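User: Thanks for the earlier help. One more: Battenin. Can you show the sequence and predicted structure together?

Assistant: Of course, both are below.
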Amino acid sequence: MGPIWGGWQGISSDPEGEDEDVPRSVEPATNPDACSLRRNNLGFWLLGLCNNFAYVVMLSAAHDILSHQKVPAGNGTGPVPHGANDSRYDCNPISTGAVLLADILPTLLIKFSAPFCIHLFPYGLRVAICVLTAWGSFLLVAFSKGTAQSMAGVVLASISSGLGEITFLALTSFFDSTVVSAWSSGTGGAGLIGALSYLGLTEAGLSPRHTLLIMMVVPVIMQASYCFLLAPPPHAPRCGWSTSTQKSQQASSMSQEPLLGRESTPRNNTKSCRLSLQEKGQVVKGLLKYLIPLAIVYFAEYFINQGLFELLYFRTAPFGHSQQYRWYQMLYQAGVFISRSSASCIRIQQIWLLAVLQCLNMVFLLFAVSYMFLPSIYLVFALILYEGLLGGASYVNTFHCVSAESQPEHREFAMGVACVADTFGISLSGAIAIPVHDYFCRLP
């Protein structure tokens, strides 16, 4: 048996390295015991949490980044002087949609290109890149001297999140199907814990700089979870960086298979082959019934988050503008976490219904901003929580449907390409949020 890669355990395998006829002695490895299932579910939950953490924190800090607030008097909790600008909306010069675009466009580029070439790079290298770019994002924003440097940090957070999402969603195809729910719950937890920790630490008196420096421990948890917590089946990719060594050892031991040389899953021992461009196109075409509604859901909710949150400002509320924005982000992420963790209880196949409801929510809040008829910020809190519930439900149910309906040899590619839809919707919302922000902010 070859050496153990990283912290992933070696698994007894066929000494002859036969791919076609898996001996009876390795069958327990394809049906992991309860301990392995718990480890894998916890591992994917932590990977989801850590992968989306930096992305969420950058959106929660968007108002601070654009207003260059390094915790002013009262830590941003006191009333904002009226008349700071000529608009009734108390606007920043730049829309928070600009932060959203910096936080999502690199992700969109990665997700569009990665499904067609990412198999050339081992999983271990991809995870290391995610960790390093997440570190860089926190450092650049923490020590920023201006908006441009902060935006560069946001871009690094986007690269980390985008590459991580397409990597770990593809990785779920090698494990039991329950890890999809664990991953989705973890990404929802990232939203809640990321937004709540940023809100809590700044409310406790820490500056945004020190808050971001504390959060640098999160990428370390990601690397540890990938290398030491997961208990993969024998045909899953290992925690190594080099594919050449593994390929040379394939004939002597299945425990040292190439990182992406055999794309089977623990749910099915069918040996898969590389998909042609035409086959990939057919897979994408079959997924459109889920991807289009998911894109619409995310367009609507992120238009609310980055186009309307900043404009939903209540001057009579007991806290200031920056604090209101942070509360909006935290409540939205709380709703996402609840619904992304509900897949074991509720399954929804009609993703289009969630898209309709989210669009209605967007239109209502757009009228609320335009005519300012909402009497209380607490009503907005309830609507934002509801918005998060719809968004999280659409995400987890979309990926469950894609995983369940994909053929085993298509599943890894399908799970990777499906995550393009939400990113495309988010990118479009960021582009539209900027002119909408400018329009409202020009109103007297």
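User: Great, one quick takeaway?

Assistant: The domain at 33-234+258-441 is CATH 1.20.1250.20 (Growth Hormone; Chain: A;).
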